[in-house]
Amino acid sequence: MVGVSSSAADFRAGFACFVGRPNVGKSTLMNALVGTKVAITSSKPQTTRRAIRGIVHRPDAQLVIVDTPGLHRPRTLLGERLDSLVLSTLTEVDVIGFCVPANEPVGKGDRFIAEKLAAVRKTPVVAVVTKCDLATREQIAAQLLAVSQLAEFAEIVPVSAASGEQLDVVADVLIDRLPESPPLYEGGQLTDEPEQVLVGELIREAALEGVRDELPHSIAVVVDEMLPREGRDDLLDIYAHMFVERPSQKAIVIGHKGTRLKEVGSRARKQIEALLGSRVYLDLRISVAKDWQRDPKQLRRLGFYD
């Protein structure tokens, strides 16, 4: 019989996910824990559309974070797909982090999610009070009390992803609830999302910045091709396509004489170069796919499956 060292036996590895209403800082928190930009973050609500795994590596543990879109009452077929993605994710993880911001009062959306979580009986739920850098000590104390009255939580932890305060505590609390297991991913790996998906998300994030409130839900991005420039090993050619639902939205994204689309391309290119560690040529186009959020065929074509 082969002996196992105590350090190997004590190693923990497993899956956690953050849930919460839109724009409560879930993706920002995951990026801060992982230490690099994995999930799209924007000031617009509902910017995360896929369950992206960010991987936190520690000497004693490996925490795989599944990022989910904000739970909400769906208004479109896309909204229904997103919410079913969240609910299916909840049943597959080892621990759930329920995010509530410190600087906003607990509301109907938070209570709606707390009710959903109550039905997931086998998985421990840790309440994470986010954005503490935007709240006073008195506000944080009041929010911790308000959150404690929503449901029975395994623990309640305040955190600021922006300043890094209490990040290690959040990681410890989540890791304590993982099973003993060898590592699930290789040491240097930070996500298991294909690079093309991450590139598409970065383009979408750049397109969301500075546009009207009705636009976020209407932008989808498909990366058609990513390949090294022939004869050069220091340049990557990326061909990507943005889709909106109406010609008026296309005009907003393009801007006056194409100025806004150029800004989007420039901002996305810098983020992509940082992600891939290579110079990038980005060919970015935009088309109208009428009412794609409500059309099952278009949703499938754009990567949102049943």
TrEMBL record:
GTP binds at residues 20-27, 67-71, 130-133. Residues 46-50 are annotated as: G2. Residues 12-180 form the Era-type G domain. The keyword GTP-binding applies. Pfam families: KH_2, MMR_HSR1. It comes from Streptosporangium jomthongense. This is GTPase Era. InterPro entries: G_ERA_dom, GTP-bd, GTPase_Era-like, KH_dom-like_a/b, KH_dom_type_2, KH_sf_prok-type, P-loop_NTPase, Small_GTP-bd.
